[in-house]
Amino acid sequence: MAERGRVVHITGARPNFPKAAPVIAALTERGVEQLLVHTGQHYDDRLSRVFFDELGLPDPDLNLGVGSGSHAVQTAAVMVGLEELFLRDRPALVVVYGDVNSTVAAALVAAKLQIPVAHVEAGLRSFDVTMPEELNRRLTDQLSDLLFVTSPEAIGHLAREGVAQQRIHFVGNPMIDTLLAHLDAFDPVQARAGLDLGLSDTTAYLVATLHRPANVDDPASVRQLVSVLHKAAERLPVVIPLHPRGRVALESAGLSTSSGVIVTDPLPYSTFMGLVRGAAAVITDSGGVQEETTVLGVPCLTMRPNTERPVTITHGTNQLVTVDGVLPALDEVLAAPGSVRPAPVGSRPPLWDGAAGHRIAAIIAHQVEST
Ligand code: UD1
């Protein structure tokens, strides 16, 4: 194995960690030699360290410590650090996750060195090129040799972009592996108690998470958003774990001035999922939360004009809302409590069954052994 090179996983930002954990664990079971790299895109313990501890991820073998910066600065720093590593210790395969800047940076460096790339969560498309993630997805998929898709429509997107069929593997959703593996730890009562939110065990509440540039970077949007969250808080208390991006803007627009708004720091995985599990509804612009609420059967109002995860609408609990549409949609959901749980259509999206990590590991092991 040593002369063949290792499988190198590239992680960097919070949403990467629950996707990588089951893949790394399944490859470990198969005895595949691996190296885990953290680019340092997220360096805050609350966005990074806590996830490693909780998800049983091994400590990264290497942290590039790239930190924050403009897109070009951040992407370039990851590329420079990885090029050095890949030249020194030529991997058999580089595995990248999701759609963050670290993902595309790693794929580009590996492809230029003719090192095979596997992309976990390939083929998702919002068709909205104003989102940096959409560019990251498209480019990463063009550079990848193994494309692991989480939902069937992704296969069609990739085929239309000219990706050869034999490179595409519909394996299910490894982030949902992580969710199902930790389900017993998602205890709404314990999550609330641990956070001292001032909510009784029986008080209904909402959870909101907002961090997308389109929602939190423009002062006019932020003011509108804060006003909507205040109105939502007149219906039910809203717990808002705040991502560092947008924190200052949202707070300066008076987010915490409503008594029904409870702002917290970013939360550990099980605490956050426990809160979500017990929520009457979630208001979000996150990609992962759309999927997690679908499996937990919690109504999800996504404040975006589009989603790259339509399966969460067709097979789940998600609906897209505009800033003006949030309150009417919320009122409808609150007027019919229980109507959304369990997830409609009676089933989860196909292959969201807890075994995606094993499927991915089987294909990776085969690829590495045959090279
Ligand atoms: C990144 C991803 C986004 C994902 C999100 C999840 C890209 C383009 N975006 O967005 O797709 O949904 O992660 O969290 O890769 N910051 C800190 N501490 C940290 C990291 C960031 O305070 O540990 C602050 C900094 O002010 C930084 C800002 O957050 O400038 C943005 O960080 P960045 O990594 O560029 O993107 P995210 O908004 O976190």
Q: Mind summarizing the main beta sheet?
A: 7 strands, parallel
Q: Which residue ranges are poorly predicted, with pLDDT under 50 across at least 5 consecutive positions?
A: none
Choose one word for the global shape. globular
What percentage of amino acids are in beta strands? 5-15%
Rg over CA atoms, rounded to whole Å, is 20 Å
* Class by alpha and beta content: alpha/beta
Cα(first) to Cα(last) distance is 11 Å
SS elements, strand count: 13
**What is the overall number of helices?**
16
Report the average pLDDT across residues. Answer: 95
Strand order of the largest sheet: 3-2-1-4-5-6-7
- Element-by-element helix/strand order: EHEHEHEHEHEHEHHEHHEHEHEHEHEHH
Instruction: Name the bound molecules.
Output: uridine-diphosphate-N-acetylglucosamine
Amount of helix: 40-55%
Offer a quick outline of the entry.
This protein is an alpha/beta fold. Helix content is 43%, strand content 14%. The strands form two sheets. Strands 3-2-1-4-5-6-7 form a seven-stranded parallel β-sheet, with helices on both faces.
Describe what you observe in this structure.
The chain has helices spanning 17-29, 49-55, 71-88, 101-112, 132-143, 153-160, 174-181, 188-195, 213-216, 219-235, 247-252, 269-277, 287-296, 311-314, 326-335, 356-369, and strands at residues 7-11, 34-38, 62-63, 93-97, 117-122, 146-149, 168-170, 206-209, 238-241, 261-264, 281-284, 300-302, 318-320. It has 16 helices and 13 strands. A seven-stranded parallel sheet has the order 3-2-1-4-5-6-7, sandwiched between helices. A six-stranded parallel sheet has the order 10-9-8-11-12-13, with helices on both faces. Helix 3 (71-88) packs across helix 4, helix 8 crosses helix 12 and helix 10 (219-235) packs parallel to helix 15. Helix content is 43%, strand content 14%. The model has no long low-confidence stretch (mean pLDDT 95). Strand 5, helix 5 and strand 6 (146-149) form a beta-alpha-beta unit. The chain is α/β, with parallel strands linked by helices. The chain is globular, with a radius of gyration of 20 Å. Uridine-diphosphate-N-acetylglucosamine is lined by residues 13-15, 41-44, 47, 68, 74, 99-101, 132-133, 211, 243-245.
